[in-house]
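Here is an idea for our session: we take a single protein and study its fold together. Once you have written the record down, we can walk along the chain together.
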Amino acid sequence: VGNSTQGVVISDIRYPASVSPLSTFSVTLYVSNNLNGNNAEDITLCLDNLGVLNFTNANQYGGSPCVAINNLFAGETVPETFTLRSPSNGAYENIPYAEDVGYYLNYNYTTSFVQPVEFVSENALNSEKYPPVGSFSETAGPLTVSVSAQQPVMYGNSVGISLSVMNAETGLTLGNVDTYILMNGSIITIQNPGTYGLSTSCSLPPSLSSQAKGMQVFCLSQPLSLNGMTISFPISLTSNEQSQLQSSNSRYFETQFKVITTYKYEQNGFFPISLQAEGYS
């Protein structure tokens, strides 16, 4: 799995092309995490819409056709097998019939985006003698993060950032999407973050604590609408950093900030199980 807009997916399903009445058979779903994504946590895979079919290994799965996977590393695939039993042919009037068995997969995931920001002196800006802005980097996931900013920006000015979070897949987010903006607060900052809907009272998940060490963190938590989410805010040099750059006659300076989104996501699908009819002698 390498699609940049995928997180955890069902990469393959193995099931019989058709089954006879009163037979027991297995269905195996392969759960895969994107090689270019982050680790996935608290994964639940369930079968749904069994119709006339019966779920037989209920004891193994706690009485319901669901299985929990605690963690799945990027690039990892695990098979999960369910045992089903077809009914007597009388349950479907001995007419060839296909049951569309559904499944749903939900999991916690993180998508991140690193954006460089370049500040330049007035002379460098006027003479256009500065290097190109560095390239951004991002991780794969069903939610995509994009950042736009007019760069470079002159010392003493702020750069307007437009940040968008979009659902690029066919699934949906469950609950709020938590967005965190991390930056070196001794170099750059967001003045009056509350004006832009951002908070500094952020409770980071334990898995992100190491990334936030020594960083200033701004956050926003809200549901993701069908049109996604876009927020705009300015980033500027701290007064101390600006003074140091100007006093040292630095022509240009580049730093970066990181955007991390955490969310619970659900993806679903189905596969057909064909039930055979039996002839009468």
About this structure: The two ends are 50 Å apart (CA to CA). The first helix runs from residue 122 to 127.
